Amino acid sequence: MKLDPVVVDQLVSGSQSDIRQVINMISTWKLLSSSMNFDQGKELVQQNQKFTIQTPWTVMSNLFSPHMFGATSTSTLGSKADYYFHDHSLIPLFVQENYVKCNPAKARDSNNEKAEFKRMKYASKAADAISDGDLVDSMIHGSQQQWGLMPLHAMNSTVRPASFMYGGFKSFGRDTISFPMWLGQYSKTNKNIRALGEIQAKMRVKVSGDRDEIRQYYYPTLWPRMFNPLTESVPDIDSVINLLDNYMLSKDDFDVMSELGVGDLALEKTVKCIPTKNKTAFTRNYNNRDHPIAFSRGQVIKPSAAQIKAEVPDHEDVLDDEDDNVVDAKEEEDDENDDVTADKLVKQPKKPAASKRGKASASRGKGSK
């Protein structure tokens, strides 16, 4: 049986390089015919197509490979869109994270400046396609949930960006493809929103701003007044603690606010500039004081050091007359409850019957009389 090399390559790629499946397809076809052309091989591959779930890294390597959108590519538009459905929630994020790392085949030129200009042009087109994909995704996962738009989302978020930026990554290897950083940033954003909401709930006793106003207007004013006194050689700890108490904030809120800053108020430029001894002194002084609480959620609040040192009177030996009466009443109730004669479930013992000898002597005595 003669096979064209192109047909063999098609059988190998269609079976995911499974040699046993290739031999099985050829042996089955040999029973019907002794030759196979390109169209027949394509039809045979579709009939025996092997579906496997690929990892996102494998999908990215195949989708952005130099031959995927080339002139000699045999992949159809549907097969390219199938890469999206391996993991429709994760593949678009991988594309968004890694498309800028590609070296587009369309932008290659002997002139480096011209090649860089083309690369920026195709990267801009890929970014526009990803933006269109985000609009479609909002309609899919929004209130309407139009799941029929998933093929359109596959084209805009995966296929179109790859068609502009295909050509392989700049440095080849698995480590080149990065995991989407958006997932970590999204989780961090939700955590900061929850923390900012708790701070706003406590500060609303003193201020009238909502969560966004607290972050935009109050935070840039309050935070420098909280950490600047602690950076000095002689820290003004009392002013910081009084400021926290005035706005019903705690030491935990102070730590949370240190993570909300950006730019000049970022964590690296504020809290990390405070000497360790000042941090220790601030924590010690704060724990030794009593602080106002805006509201309580039923949490167990540990007493401060001042409350622990205070003397507690001993009332163990002090009893009132009312307590004596209560104790006597309880003892009487316990005695009544201990009486089992009134319990119907307890079988009472019967009185012992008189012996026969006793009855006989009694009858003799009556007869003698």
TrEMBL record:
- Name a GO CC annotation attached to this entry: nucleus
Entry keyword set: DNA replication
| Residue ranges annotated for the DNA replication factor RFC1 C-terminal domain, each copy included | 130-287
Which residue stretches does the UniProt record annotate as biased composition, category Basic residues?
347-359
- From the Swiss-Prot or TrEMBL record, what is one GO molecular function term? ATP binding
Q: Show the segment(s) annotated as Disordered.
A: 310-369
Q: Which Pfam families does the UniProt entry name for this protein?
A: AAA_lid_RFC1, RFC1
**What residue spans carry the Low complexity bias annotation?**
360-369
Q: Does the keyword Glycosyltransferase apply?
A: no
Which biological process annotations from GO are given for this protein?
DNA replication
Q: Where is the composition biased (Acidic residues)?
A: 317-340
What is the protein's name according to its record? DNA replication factor RFC1 C-terminal domain-containing protein
Organism annotation: Wallemia ichthyophaga
> What broad taxonomic lineage does this protein's source fall under?
Eukaryota, Fungi, Dikarya, Basidiomycota, Wallemiomycotina
